[in-house]
Specification:
By secondary structure, this protein is α+β, with helices and mostly antiparallel strands. The chain has 2 helices and 4 strands, in the order βαββαβ. It has one domain: Alpha-Beta Plaits, CATH 3.30.70.
Length: about 80
């Protein structure tokens, strides 16, 4: 039966994604992307967010959930 996978990153629980990035490292399907926000010309960004841009590639291994020290990732599965 087909399923719909929804991957959610909770920014309030992950205060410094630029220092952690464990979800990015363990995901075998490259579901997550780290984006810089509040950019200034010729300066390193100070704030980042993690975006599950490629949710459709998720294979439900849940490695990202297991490795996240702040419980900032939720994976929901719905049968379609």
């Amino acid at each position: 039966m087909p399923v719909k996978v929804s991957v959610e990153w909770i920014g309030d629980k992950c205060s410094r994604p630029q220092d952690c990035g464990k979800c990015l490292e363990v995901c075998p399907c490259t579901v997550f992307v780290r984006y810089a926000i509040e950019r200034e010309p010729n300066k390193e960004p100070k704030n980042y967010v993690i975006v599950p841009s490629f949710q459709r590639f998720c294979i439900l291994c849940r490695k990202c959930v297991e490795v996240c020290p702040n419980n900032a990732i939720n994976i929901n599965v719905q049968e379609t």
